Amino acid sequence: MAPSPQITNLIIIIGMMQISKKIPFDDPNILLGVRILYLVSNLIILAIYQYIGMQIAKKRDMATLKYVEPAPMGSQEEPKLITTTIQKYDESQLRSLRKSQLMGIGMMCVMHLYFKYTNPLLIQSIIPLKGAFESNLAKIHLFGQLATGDMKRPWKAAGGMMGMAGGGEIKTDKASIEAAERSGRGGVKEE
Length: 191
Prior knowledge:
Strand content: 5-15%
Largest sheet: 3 strands, mixed
Order of helices and strands: HHEEHHHHHE
Strand order of the largest sheet: 1-2-3
Mean pLDDT: 86
Number of strands: 3
Number of helices: 7
């Protein structure tokens, strides 16, 4: 059994922190090389996401997907029923991956350009690339795994800080879906 992605990320971060202590970032050539590494890493991620987007469009999986989305943590809202297609679900997940990648680039730009931190450039050249290859979309559309078991849509939300997923778990069982339909909560159809 392979170690969890969080454990391998922690090992990579600790290892890269030790390596980055030995790298002379004062040398402009080395700093340029690390910046290029970061840029190439993000371009590879962009290419992966573009390819996944093309594969989603090519497959055009119009199978209906129904699930009950939990209410946001701390809100008084009821969980809502979502009715969509596999294609639309995958597109929304891809949009979410792209948005988080852009947020990471923005944060890295602030840390590096404004605060002059250079060590995170090295770490952020590896961790997001690893995450792009480990995403469920990459496993299905890039590596050809079947969407069964843990890969069955809708996917569980990745645990945030300390493994806490905000709001609860997505429910796909028939009883939860029927209860949401009867109570009139949601019925949101994503177009």
